[in-house]
Amino acid sequence: MLARAADSIFWLARYMERMDNVARLLEATQSMSGMSESAEEWRSALVASGCDETYLEKHAEVTPEKALLYLAYDPDNPSAIMSCLDRARTNARSMRTALTSDMWDAVNGSWLEGRHLKASAFTPERIGETIDWVKTVGNRFYGAYAGTMLRNEIYWFARLGTFIERADNTARILDVKFHLLLPQDEGVGGAVDYYQWTSILRAVSAVRAYQWVYRTEVKPWNIADLLILRPEMPRSLRACYDEIDAVLAQIATSHTGRRGECHRLAGALAAQLRYGRIEDIFARGLHEYLTDMVERTGQLGVEINAFYMR
After folding, report:
1. Grouped pLDDT means (10 residues each) for the chain, 310 residues
2. CA–CA distance from 126 to each of 119, 129, 152, 219, 302 (Å)?
3. How many CB atoms lie within 10 A of CB 217?
4. Which residues have a Cβ under 8 Å from the Cβ of 159 and sit 6 or more positions away?
5. Distance (Å, rounded) from C-alpha 75 to C-alpha 96?
6. Is 98 exposed, middle or buried (0-12, 13-18, 19+ CB in 10 A)?
């Protein structure tokens, strides 16, 4: 498989996953902001998406309307929902012959639908229905490639892009909630607002999963355990890195066993999560742990690019 082809497939999947993640983040933020008159939740959403610095270069202050538009529609933001859809379609088009017809239709059809969306679709009054559309787009794409692609290198690089992006998003959204939105006079695990925590679970489609696993009221330390260490939770860091490690091993097998730094780093992170304990994570400091995971996930992406895409 050509390095250029691997790069296009990898980023196609990353951009499709990213637009879904941003939509979920907006949904949670919109829900939390309804319980507060401050813009702190929207500032945290900008931080979680890694857009806070570029936003403040363009806007003097954080307001719900401006933050919402910047995260969803602003062409100056490469991680905005509509920017991700454009970039995903560009990558899909460059690899059109390698995609199944269902996979191409999922991307191109969504892009054509998105061209009819105006800025008014991303106002606080209409964002709910737009978010539902974005999540449908994400599910359509994921189902198309999971259900129709041959299990070959194209499929494995798509999986790799999906789960690296998902791991990064899970670490970011959990870190922002614990570090930025925690009341100033409480430690982690204090009497944090129940409604906000439930909104975070909704953002990762984990409300029912939480109830099934813990069978108790929402508690911050249980949410951290669910989203970091539980292998049965598909958006947890553990589940993402189990998949990343397995996919990289599969790709290495197809390359006559050739391995590099990306395989070592993925294996180390997967093992750390597989044998980790939530008590040890809190003893170290949850913010420090999650910041480290975001940085190492970013480094893994760099190493994958250096090993396979150059």
Report:
1. 88 96 88 69 86 93 92 94 97 94 96 93 90 94 94 94 95 75 49 67 87 88 93 96 96 85 97 95 90 95 93
2. 10, 6, 41, 31, 37
3. 10
4. 13, 243, 247
5. 24
6. middle
